[in-house]
Specification:
By secondary structure, the chain is of the alpha+beta class. The protein is 62% helix and 11% strand. It is built from 17 helices and twelve strands. It has a five-stranded antiparallel β-sheet. It is elongated.
Length: 616
């Protein structure tokens, strides 16, 4: 007692301090420590709320110190079916008690941590003194120790249950018919109780809408009572299922035992805490091993584990990750939506490949029609896949109007070119003014075949095998020369000239004859499309002509090569017929000059070997 008094004096002095260390003597003290401290508080004149709280805590600590927990839980092996039922009910009560203790321990852990932090770092509440905190800490810690002791006892008793039940199955006989009848009665009773609960909930909702608060409160209390009765009926159902499970084990009917086991685990999972579910699973597993053997248990457990893993995976996959417009999006929904969208792209590509393969050797379907069918079908499939993806995610399609509104703002600022190209691509596909395979000319430096038309751009392949990507809106807004829009016939103009003094009619005849006998198979002459030679002017050094010749087929796509071919033909024909091809000539006229201009005349040309200077 003399050793305790200084400690109590220090604690009372610490009332005015803001932080203190945890006092192990007070925490581990017995009834005498708390009685002495209570006497000192009672002797003081202070009677504040803080002092009253300290006295109340000391009374609780004194009562906890007087509690003598049991050292063990006695379990008697059941000798008949009635005792077996009582043992099963006692086992269920222990599981519920264990679950309650675990919940209390969790709460006490949180409270102990909170009080410890206040003791070590000071309390934010100016009215709470270190002594009060020390007493609270001691009260929570002693309660925790008592709960832990009880938990240990329950765990020992729960661990003995599987062998106890398995051994009892060898010597107990059960009334199978009575068990089946009991289960039928319980199911009927449970169904009626649930119907009554549903009626009461509907009635409460109706009264709540009418604003009758008193009646709603009365029905709420009645519903609480009905739910309690429902739980008691569920306990009875669980007991009868356990008896039937025990009978199946006794008769070595493993399949039926595992089916009943699944029913009970499902019922426990929906009704009781998680710890009860875990302990029940351990009980069934050990009873299966002790009664059916390892092989049968392993087979049944494997199936159970697979089902449990699948169920757990399904639960986790459907847990919401985030919300879109108050619509929860789970991992499974996200995966399924992405899968649908990817499959849409894959089916779109397969569709395009199929169209190209089917129309490859077709003479009735042009390349442009093939591209139109392939691209249009592809984008339709992708758009359908997009809407299916939204449906899978559970997003209301009406909410897309908000997105469309935001998108229209974006189009006004930065996406107008993209949308313009997209619309232009649609126009090109449907209007067909430019088709796949057409030879087009955008300017003097860009000519080539149209090799592909997509939603955003068109690919033009030049004669140099260079692919040029042209935005679709350029083909719509600017002038485009389509060499092969309707047919592959084009008139070429081949310019040439002859010397002055040449017979014009002869030139026309010679050139037309040369063209006619050239053997060129691509020359086209039909109707008004005739080969002609036209005089176009009289230049400084030559009389200018142009050969107008119509060409059909692929050669029109190579204008320089075709022009070169006809220039060679013209040059050869003029040489054969002695028609001079002129070159530039200039006459010099001198109007005036100061002094003499010496000119030397070559007289040898006129038969005179001496030179003559003109102007001497």
């Amino acid at each position: 007692m003399k050793r305790i008094l200084p400690i109590l004096s220090i604690l009372l002095f610490a009332v005015h301090l803001r932080a203190a260390d945890i006092d192990a003597t007070l925490v581990n003290g017995g009834e005498k420590v708390y009685q002495s401290l209570l006497k000192q508080l009672a002797a003081g004149k202070e009677n504040s709320d803080e002092t009253k709280l300290q006295k109340a805590l000391l009374y609780k600590l004194i009562n906890l110190s007087r509690v003598k927990p049991p050292q063990s839980i006695t379990i008697k092996p059941p000798s008949d079916e009635a005792h077996y039922r009582k043992a099963a009910m006692a086992y269920g009560n222990r599981l519920l008690s264990k679950a309650s203790i675990l919940a209390n321990l969790q709460s006490l852990h949180e409270k102990i941590d909170g009080v410890r932090n206040q003791l070590l770092h000071g309390s934010d509440d100016n009215a709470t003194t270190p002594l009060t905190l020390q007493l609270q800490y001691a009260f929570y810690l002693k309660g925790k120790r008592l709960y832990e002791h009880k938990l240990h006892l329950y765990q020992e008793a729960i661990a003995k249950a599987p062998k106890l039940f398995s051994d009892a199955l060898k010597r107990i006989s059960f009334d199978v018919n009575a068990t089946g009848q009991n289960l039928q009665k319980i199911e009927k009773e449970l169904r009626k109780k649930r119907e009554e609960i549903q009626r009461m909930e509907v009635e409460r909702e109706r009264l709540n809408l009418l604003g009758r608060t008193a009646a709603v409160t009365r029905i709420t209390h009645e519903l609480q009572r009905l739910h309690g009765e429902e739980k008691r009926i569920l306990n009875k159902k669980l007991l009868e299922l356990f008896i039937r499970y025990s009978i199946a084990l006794k008769e070595k009917r493993s399949k039926k035992a595992f089916d009943l086991q699944r029913r009970m685990m499902s019922l426990v999972e929906k009704t009781y805490p998680a710890s009860v579910h875990t302990d029940m699973a351990k009980l069934f597993h050990k009873m299966d091993l002790l009664t059916l053997g390892r092989a049968e248990t392993l087979k049944g457990a494997t199936r159970e584990e697979v089902e449990a893993v699948v169920k757990d995976f399904w639960h986790r996959a459907n847990a919401p990750l985030f919300d879109i417009n108050k619509t929860p999006i789970s991992a499974f929904k996200l995966f399924l939506a992405l899968l649908v969208f990817v499959l849409g792209f894959i089916f779109g590509q397969l569709y395009k490949s199929g169209i190209k393969r089917l129309t490859k050797n077709s003479t009735s379907i042009t390349p442009s029609t093939q591209t139109l069918l392939a691209n249009l079908g592809y984008y339709i499939i992708v758009i359908i896949a997009f809407f299916i993806m939204l449906k899978v995610l559970g997003i209301n399609l009406t909410s897309i109007a908000l997105v469309a509104g935001a998108l229209s703002v974006g189009i006004g600022f930065g996406l107008q070119n993209m949308v313009s190209n997209f619309v232009s691509g649609l126009i090109l596909m449907f209007e067909r003014s430019i088709k796949i395979g057409d030879y087009v000319e955008l300017d003097n430096d860009l000519r080539g075949h149209v090799s592909d038309i997509r939603m955003r751009s068109t690919t033009i392949t030049t004669n140099d095998n260079i692919d040029v990507i042209v935005p679709n809106q350029d083909l719509i807004q600017n002038r485009v020369v389509n060499w092969t829009m309707n047919d592959r016939i084009r008139r070429f103009k081949i310019p040439f000239g002859v010397a002055y003094g040449t017979d014009v009619q002869k030139v026309e005849t010679v050139i037309l004859e040369a063209v006619a006998t050239s053997g060129f198979t691509d020359i086209y002459e039909k109707g008004h499309r005739k080969t002609r030679v036209i005089m176009t002017g009289m230049g400084d050094s030559s009389v200018d002509f142009e050969l107008f010749v119509w060409i059909q087929g692929r050669e029109i796509l190579f204008p320089r090569r075709t022009t070169s071919r006809f220039l060679k033909l013209i040059y050869k024909a003029l040489n054969i017929h002695g028609i001079e091809i002129p070159f530039p000539q200039r006459d010099i006229h001198i109007r005036s000059v100061d002094g003499e201009i010496p000119l030397k005349v070559d007289n040898a040309k006129h038969g005179d070997k001496s030179g003559t200077n003109i102007g001497n």
